[in-house]
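Recap from last week: sequence in, structure out.
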Amino acid sequence: MEKPDKKKKNSPDSPLKIGDVERNKAKKGGFFSNEKRNIFLVLLITFTVFLPSLQNKFVNLDDPQYLTTNPVVQTLNGENLKIIFSEQFVGNYQPITMLSYMVEYKFSGLDPFGYHLVNLIFHLLGTLFVFLIIKKLSGNGLVAFITALLFGIHPLHVESVAWISERKDVLYGFFFLGALYLYVLPPLLPKGSISTTSPLLRREFRWGLCLLFFSLSLLSKAQAVVLPMVFFVIDFLMNRKFTKKTILEKIPFFVLAVAFGLLAIKVQGKAGAMQTFQYFPFYERILFSCYALITYLHKLILPINLSCFYPYPETNDKINTVWVYISPAVLLALAFVIWKYFRESKVVLFGMAFFLLTIILVLQLLPIGDALYADRYTYIPSIGLFFITAHFIAPLLKNRLLLLMATAYLLFCCYLTFQRTKVWHDSITLYTDAINKGYKAAIIYNNRGAVLSDSTRNEEALKDFASLVKLKPRYPNGWRNKGLIHVRLKQNEEAISSFSEAIKHFPADASNYLSRGTICVEKNEFEKAIRDFSKIIELNPKSGEGYYARSEAYGKSNKLTEALADINKAIEFSPDNGQAYNNRGIIYSMGGKFQEALNDFTRSLELNPDNLSAYTNRALSYKGMGKYTEALQDMMIAKEKGITVDESSIGELKQKAHPVLPEGKEK
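Predicted C-alpha cells:
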C-alpha cells in the first residue's frame, strides 16, 4: 500500500477515491464543473454524428437471419418466446436481443427506422453510463467528458450502432455499463459521503440490481462474461482491499459468467462457428491474436480504412504480411514502456487491464468465425484506453495549442463517424466500400453478388461471383451462385461448367446435380441428365425431387415405363407436389388411361390451383373420354386465366358438346 504523499495528491497519477467527487464540487472546475451541461453536450454531439444512421436500410449481413426473414421474431406469442430462450440464432445465444426484435417488430414491422433509432438510443444511454462511471472513478468532470465523448463518437463504434444486427452490442453494453455504475456507487464500495439510509442505496439492493443487470447483459451477448474480473480492477483503482468479503460478493457473478461462457462455446461449436486449431496451428493463433491486438490499438488511435469485414492476412493458407510475425515484439516493447514509465500510475494499469480483460475473448485465441478482428469488438474495451487518454490530456488543455489539437482530433473523429455511418446505408454501399479499401474477402463478394442478383443486375453479380470463386474456390455455394447467374443470362455452357466445379468441390450437394441435369434436359442431352438425377437419388433414396426430375428426363426421351415408375416414387416421397400429379397425368393420357389421367389432373389443381396447364391437360382427357362439355369448360377456364388456347380446338369442342341440327336448332 502506498503511503500518502502530499506532493502526489494533485498528480494525475495519484490514487483515486470515491470522495474525490464530492470534494471537487467545492472547487472551481471551470466550464466542465457543470455535470448536466457536460452530459447534454456529449449526448448531443453523439446523436448528431450518428444521425445519418436513422436513414439507413437493412443489410444482408445477418439482418435476414436475425430479423427480416426470421418468422420467430415476427410473431409475439408463447411458443416463439420459448424458442428465443431455448435456441441459438446465427451462432449466438442472445434471448434478450431477440426479444427486443420481437417486441419492436410488433410495433414497427420491417421499417428500418425504428430499429436504427433503438440502437442509437441504447448507445446514448451507454454513453451516459460511461460519463457517470468515469466521473465517479476520477472525480473530474473534464476527464469524464473526454472519455464519454470519445466513446460516443468514435468511428470504431459505428458498426455497433449503425448495424441493426449488432443490437446485441449496444444492448449488452448498456446492461454491462449499468452494472459497472451500480458497482462504483458507494453502497457497493467502501462507505463514502452518500447516505446509505435509503433502501434504494443499501448495499443489498445495489448488489441484487447489479447482478440483474449482469444477467441481462449475458443474455444479450456472451462477451459480458468478463464483468466479474473488471470488478477486481475497479477495486484496485479505488484502493479497495482484497478481503474474503470482497471476493465472496463476486462469487454469484463468477458462477453466472462460467455458466454462460460454457454455453457460448457450446452454441458456437454447434452452429459451426468454431474453427479447428488444425486450420491454423496454435502458434499461428498466438501470432494472429497479437496482430489483432496491435490493430485494435492502431485503429483506436487512427480510425481510418475501416471495413465491415477484416479477413485473415493469409493467401493460400499462408500468412502474407510480416506484421503478423513482428506483432509480439511490438507488444512486448509496449509492455516494457508501460512497466518502466507508468507502473506507478493506477489509471494506466487500470485502463490497460480493463481493455485487455474485455477484449481478450475476441482475439481469436478461441477460433470463432472467419474474421480476424472486427470494429464492434472494441465497443466496451475502448473505454479503458479512452480513460487513460482523458486522464493525461485533461490537465494539458490549459495550453491553447494542445486544446486546439485535441479539438481538431475530436472533430476529425466526428467527421469520420458521420461519414462511416452513411457507409452502412445499404448492402451494396457497405460491400463496395470494403472492396474499394482492399478488403477483398469471399463473404463480401458473395453478399454483394447476392444483392446485385436480387436487383437483376446479373452482369455485375456475375463479376462478383467470379471474383469470389477465384479468391476462394471452396467457398460454400460460390460456384453454384455463379452457375445460377449464367442460367439467368442463358449461358448454358458456362453454367454447366460452374455446376461441374461446384460438384467437384462439394460432391454431396444434390442441388448442383439438379441444376446441371436440368440444363442437360433443355439441351436434349437426356442421358447426361438421367445420370445427374440418378446421383441425387443415390445421395438420398427418398428424394422426391430427384425422382421427379428423372421422370421428366425419361418422359422426354420417350421411356414412358421408366418415367411412370419414377413419377410414382416422386409422389410417394412428395405427396404434395402438384406438378408431379400433372406430369403423371400426362403419362397416363399418352398411354390412353384417361380416367387415371383425369384423377391426377384434378388432384394437381387441388394442390396448386395456379397450375393452369392442368386445365388444358384435363380438357384433353375429358375429350379422350368423350366428355366434350367438361372438356370445353376446362378449355374456357384456361383461356379466361390467360392460357393461349387453339381456337379451332374450342370450336371443335363446342360443335361436339352442342351439335347443331339441320333445321338450325341446337340439340
